[in-house]
Design brief:
This protein is mostly helical. It has 19 helices and 4 strands.
């Protein structure tokens, strides 16, 4: 009886990014993303609205617009339709970099004219992002592991002070800021999160440990009086953002220039977050991925200028959440965007998320902010820090990236546009890393120790079980120089009675630097083989290893201590050339 044929037609499983989870798992994972980003999303509108003296109704409209734009931008990022969006689990929201320029515009334009000028500049910044997307996406080639690793590490490290501020209470002017109760609440939340992650490792509940930790921390905070129920009581049931609800947009050149700088900063931060997410999700980021992500960013910013929101960016904290939970499905984040849209229309739902105290959120943020830094460190392990200038690039980049994080007034006395760019540790570190990598690793002589250059002594040791032009060299056998003596002349270097052999008929690479330049090789002219007498066969000694298979000619000698600039020595089996095609 013949065996049953094996069925090879079963469909291959989808990539984890394209996986659709069951509803019972997708909803908690989406809520976890909403809870982790809500404080960072609502903080800029609250700060700007409070500084401008907006009424509660106007402040609610500002928050509703921010939630709606964040939801629409997140949906566009995850779906990636018609070249708009990255097609990755990337979350969008209001950029915190807009706070300082908005407050400066309020000082110069007045409270009544500030928002129309800000929203007019936001429209122009969104259009600028759309125009620069096809060009900006090509910068991914300037992000080798040494650069992308530095930038991703800075993304996580620069966010850790935010977690510390939340853990102390969030508001530095509040009476209980940094109190033992706030720090204890943050510590309890962190311990619960780590315990759930450890005890339920391998199960779905372990993947939503952040959500469980925040729920438990909020329940503990209720008897301590740390949960504020006032926003829930005063939140309207339904809100509909109105286009240009704060007045017709005004286009002020100084405000537009500042908004353009903020947009470029947001583009660089979003690219850094996207690179980190590509490493976490195991789907490498390409040019078109960055271009699609920036188009979604630009469209969300333009729509924000119409409905009353601000410059949009990508949130790195959710990248850390993806790394920690190992839930890489982009449709989970699509559901997160849909929840944000619903919260924009129904502010009561947003007030429920706002019940989570900031100390609780700070304790959980320590975990997923640190996860981003770990992703960057993993990327740096691929950068060969032991050779060349890469270690120097990393050290200087981290220093420039941490200066504004450790001291927020480090660049305060510089011109406002320059201080805005360098005031972001991520942006400053990204610029320094790209510049140093170009200057030290690509301009002029290149690295002082090229990891691709190998010595002649290493050539003979490479892949001893592999072939060298068809031959398998044995231990102790070294290719010899072909003799140039006439046939029949004794060759004392090859044993008694041995006769010199003619030069090989196949051309070869000498392995010596030529006069055309250091480190270059030249191919000498082909040496013709003199005819041998037909009545006398030359005596060929048998070396310890058979000669090369290419024409039966012996191997040419390699200069001792010679260094070859190419990735592989020309005599190595993986070298390809017109005379030595790759063997399969």
């Amino acid at each position: 009886m013949l065996p049953r044929a094996t069925d090879h037609t079963s469909p291959t499983p989808p990539h984890p990014v394209d996986e659709i989870l069951p509803a019972r798992r997708m909803l908690p994972a989406a809520l976890q993303h909403v809870a982790s980003m809500y404080a960072g999303l609502t903080a800029p509108p609250l700060i700007i609205g409070s500084a401008l003296g907006l009424t509660p109704a106007q402040l609610s409209a500002l928050l509703a617009a921010a939630l709606l734009i964040a939801g629409l931008g997140t949906i566009a990022q995850t779906l990636g339709v018609y070249g708009v969006g990255a097609g990755l689990p990337l979350v969008n929201g209001v950029s915190f970099a807009v706070v300082s320029p908005a407050l400066a515009a309020a000082t110069t334009q007045g409270r009544d004219s500030a928002l129309p000028a800000i929203f007019g500049a936001t429209l122009v910044a969104g259009v600028l992002c759309l125009l620069l997307a096809p060009v900006f996406c090509r910068l991914v080639r300037f992000f080798p592991p040494v650069v992308s690793g530095c930038v991703i590490t800075l993304v996580g490290v620069s966010l850790l002070p935010v977690a510390g501020t939340w853990a102390r209470g969030g508001d530095a002017e509040a009476a209980g800021f940094g109190s033992p109760a706030n720090l204890a609440l943050a510590a309890v939340t962190l311990v619960i999160t780590l315990t759930v992650h450890r005890m339920l490792s391998g199960r779905f509940l372990g993947r939503v440990a952040i959500l469980i930790g925040m729920l438990a921390g909020t329940l503990i905070a209720v008897p301590l009086g740390k949960v504020d129920l006032e926003p829930l009581a005063h939140a309207p049931l339904f809100a509909l953002p109105t286009p240009f609800g704060f007045g017709a947009p005004q286009f002020v050149p100084t405000v537009i220039a500042t908004a353009a700088v903020v947009m470029i900063v947001s583009m660089m931060e979003s690219t850094a977050a996207l690179l980190a997410l590509g490493a976490v999700a195991e789907r490498p980021v390409q040019d078109r991925t960055i271009a699609g992500s920036l188009r979604a960013l630009g469209l969300a910013t333009v729509l924000g200028g119409v409905l009353g929101s601000f410059t949009t960016t990508s949130y790195a904290q959710n990248v850390g959440l993806v790394s920690l939970s190992r839930i890489r499905s982009r449709y989970v984040v699509t559901l997160c965007g849909a929840i944000l849209v619903l919260m924009g229309f129904v502010p009561v739902l947003g007030s429920l998320v706002a019940l989570v105290p900031l100390p609780v959120l700070g304790g959980a943020a320590v975990v997923f902010f640190g996860s981003v830094a770990v992703t960057g460190i993993r990327t740096l392990t691929k950068a060969a820090l032991g050779t060349g200038h890469n270690a120097l690039i990393v050290s200087v980049t981290l220093a420039f990236g941490l200066f504004p994080v450790l001291d927020t007034d480090f660049y305060a006395r510089l011109p406002a546009p320059v201080a805005t760019v360098l005031g972001s540790g991520i942006t400053a570190g990204c610029l320094v890393a790209v510049l140093l990598n170009y200057l030290l690793n690509h301009l002029g002589r290149g690295t002082e120790a090229d990891p691709d250059a190998i010595s002649a002594e290493q050539v003979t040791a490479l892949d001893t079980a592999d072939t060298v032009l068809g031959a398998r060299p044995s231990a102790g056998w070294t290719p010899f120089q072909p003799s140039t003596r006439p046939p029949g002349t004794p060759d004392h270097g090859r044993g008694p009675g041995a006769t010199a052999q003619p030069a090989p008929a196949w051309p070869y690479m000498t392995g010596f630097p030529s006069a055309t330049g250091p480190g270059r090789h030249h191919r000498p002219a082909e040496v013709p083989t003199p005819p041998l007498p037909q009545h006398e066969a030359p005596e060929v000694p048998t070396p310890p290893h058979p000669p090369a298979a290419h024409g039966g000619s012996p191997q040419p000698a390699v200069a001792e201590n010679a260094v070859f600039p190419g990735p592989l020595h020309p005599l190595h089996p993986r070298h390809t050339g017109p005379d030595h095609p790759r063997e399969h």
